[in-house]
Amino acid sequence: MTRSWIRPGASRPCSLVVCRGCCCGDARKHPGTDHAGQLDRLRAAAAASGGRLTVRTSDCLGPCGQANVVVVQPSGEARRRGARAAWVGFTLDDDSLDEILAWVDAGGPGVAEPPAGLALQFIDPPGRDAARR
């Protein structure tokens, strides 16, 4: 199915889903993080990407103890080859954003290996343990 925001014949780009629910993006929980600045930076990167990255926000994604959570979704082409979304927790600083953006710039999940530091921040999505049983 072709979505209206994708040119016919074009592959869906990598996308970032930035949690901004009850804990993620909350200055009371993480007062040392510029939550609005993080989101502005990601949106600016998407705008400059020439359509290779999209960014959207979501209400609570679930793993509140690992806030701030960003889900890095593979491009449509990578997903067709079996790539799956990567859930990144504890994205509270510029280093985390640098690594996410560098990974997406290199192709993201299923195309490029994540930076080693970023891979240490990968978390299981809610319900994954139940799905394995």
UniProtKB/TrEMBL annotation:
Domain of life: Bacteria
UniProt cross-references to CDD domains, sorted A to Z: TRX_Fd_family
UniProt-recorded name of the protein: (2Fe-2S) ferredoxin domain-containing protein
Gene source species: Streptomyces pyxinae
